[in-house]
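Write out this protein's structure.
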Amino acid sequence: MQDTSKDNIIYRHGGDIYHNNVLYDFSVNTNPLGMPPLVKQKLAENMDMFERYPDMQCGRLREAISLKEDIGKENILCGNGASEVFHLIAGAVKPYKAMVTAPAFSGYEYALRAAGTKVEYYYLEEKKDFAIDLDILDKIPVDCGIIFLCSPCNPSGRIINKKILLEVLSYCESNKIYLVADECFLGFVPDYEELSMKSEIQSSYLIVVNAFTKLYAMAGLRLGWCACGDKGLIARMQQMQPEWSVSVPAQIAGIYALKDNGYVLKTRSLVARERARMTRFFESKGIKVFPSDSNFLLVKSSINLYRKLLGKQVLIRECSNFKGLPDGFYRIAIRTEEENNVLISLLDS
């Protein structure tokens, strides 16, 4: 586990380069190519705009998302990263009880508990490679008000079969349950358009969440968004949101990131190639690798890979604080070929 005693905090995520001596960070699963060059250029060109208050309605940004994703502008809300969006959803829905998968991103539970919601879990099984099955329908609590599902899942990297998602959505509509479909990693998948639940956004019980954090490497800028057919829910979320939640540079970055299609295609090619190569390497070292469709791998090892690599100034994500995962599981991001070669050489030594 990461040592956070210096600040007396619980560090729940990857990316803790501030309390560790790190040269290479494989603990965060952002785009290995970094921010798109066009975004960096436009941020530099528009620095004078940073003196002004942001557009609280994120008008141009919502228009850009609407055009890119073929979703009505009025159905979109932008936020300070997906994390803020999750808190707004939980606060606006304010369900008595929720269901999340385990293991999963802890931000769902964090947002739900902040809203006073009781949380129950659908535990994913190692023997099934942490895949979600239709038996999830049998595990939904009768008094459930909202379900959070992530595709690809974090930390497993597995896509949820869209037929299963559609079955869950149908169940939710029949029982007046909100389904949150977290697609923050789906942009790394070549079949994004076919797999995304955005085609079902007319449903009043579906909330699709996405972010620029992962695919466009904007973790520090903080920019996320959601879309829902229930415009009343969007309005309630807006009423809860702090003024100027999305900064001027974040709005500029988002608008221009969506214009760079070549960057996304290059990213998908790199991730697919390096993911296959890293999978072969880990398996050759006797390290269990679980199937992944995203830009990171979940591995299981009898060796403490976290300590071994941190001693060599490489940070990976130790996963024992994911509910449903014991010691011995690690999430390792897919980085550039050069960075991955460093990791290989260190584990080979």
